[in-house]
Amino acid sequence: MKLVIVDVGCGNIGSVGIAFERFGLSPVVSGDAETIASADKVILPGVGAAGYAMEQIRVRGLVDTIRTLTQPVLGICLGMQLLFERSEEEGTECLGIVRGEVRRLEATPGRPVPHMGWSSLSVEEEGLGLNSGDYVYFAHSFACDPVPETVASADYGRPIPAVIRKDNWFGAQFHPERSGEAGARFLKAFLES
């Protein structure tokens, strides 16, 4: 299986690569449109700022390449947020694959921003490798609004889509590569999709 991690010039590329190596894969990190388009599975990694990541995608000429992918694609954390139309972070226009907006989390007593830590999931769809009550690791200051494509959610002062799914597109707001057994089950389910 050819697994390509999109090189967006920032993010959790190393830890995501190591997570997939545990399944016996050797992920390729690339910013080349042809390499990405020829992959069996594609990962859009996270960590960083939406504006910078989208600028790197544009500079590399990858906007149309990513938008037209038909193989399974997984966006992780910021990578999931980039699948939406827009982010409040720096007023960024994103890829527009999923309708909706990414908004800043509001700090409340007991819920600081950024949201860094373990939260439990409410899972609405089978086949994700996840169960309601699983704890997964989050590290983010922005989150997508709930959308019809939400298949698992968490609560952090408001409902947060933790996993979305639309056709061949998957998104995880949490970090599966840092979420222990539950994260490994999720990545395995993605590889089998």
Describe this structure as you would to a colleague.
The protein is an alpha/beta fold and 193 residues long. The protein has helices spanning 13-21, 33-37, 50-59, 63-67, 78-81, 180-191; strands spanning 3-6, 28-30, 41-44, 73-76, 84-87, 92-93, 98-104, 115-120, 122-123, 135-140, 142-144, 150-155, 159-166, 169-172.
Note the gap between the termini. 12 Å
CATH architecture: 3-Layer(aba) Sandwich
Nearest-integer average pLDDT: 95
Sequence of strands across the biggest β-sheet: 2-1-3-4-14-13-12-9
Outline? globular
Assign the CATH superfamily: Class I glutamine amidotransferase (GATase) domain
What is the count of DSSP helices, taking H or I runs of 4+ residues? 6
Largest sheet: 8 strands, mixed
The CATH topology turns out to be Rossmann fold
Count of domain modules = 1
Query: Which class best fits the helix and strand makeup?
Result: alpha/beta
CATH class: Alpha Beta
Number of strands: 14
Alpha carbon gyration radius: 15 Å
